[in-house]
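Narrative of activities, Objective 1.

The group set out to show that a structural description can be obtained from nothing but a protein's sequence at a throughput compatible with the screening campaign. Below is one input-output pair from the validation batch, recorded exactly as produced.
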Amino acid sequence: MNQLWAPWRIEYIKMSQNEKTKKKKPACFLCIKNFNKNKDNFVLFTGKYSFIIMNRYPYNPGHLMIAPYRHIGLIEKCNEQEVAEMLKLIQKSVIVLKKMMKPNGFNIGINLGYVAGAGIPGHIHVHVIPRWLGDTNFMPIIGKTKIINEELYNMYNKLKKVLNKNGKN
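Output recorded for this entry:
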């Protein structure tokens, strides 16, 4: 049997078990008012209307999300300031990821609604995922396993350092 060491996944496993046993609905993890804007929550940058946060369960190393502070699930409910700042933070994320990780491309997207794959349909967010030539292999297809080759806190420290050089926060 092959083993893949991914200790950060235990929080996800625990969360899933807790959700099954608790009747109380968990707080939205994208509602920044529910937590500290710090390393333990992987908040990289806070703007006036929106923020950049690392994806705790990344598709690829450097997988970031941009979300407004307001708990809104519909893009048409975002005001002009939120839309403008989120686009600026997407741009900032791409610049920082290019500088630090040198990807060959990006997947940038928004899943609107549960049927579209939105894991958090109540809080709109944009995914920014760096991609590299050859970053797909047999593991997801045959082994049904995705390999993330960078520990989250290490990635946070690296991204935060580059973000601090390229602007406040």
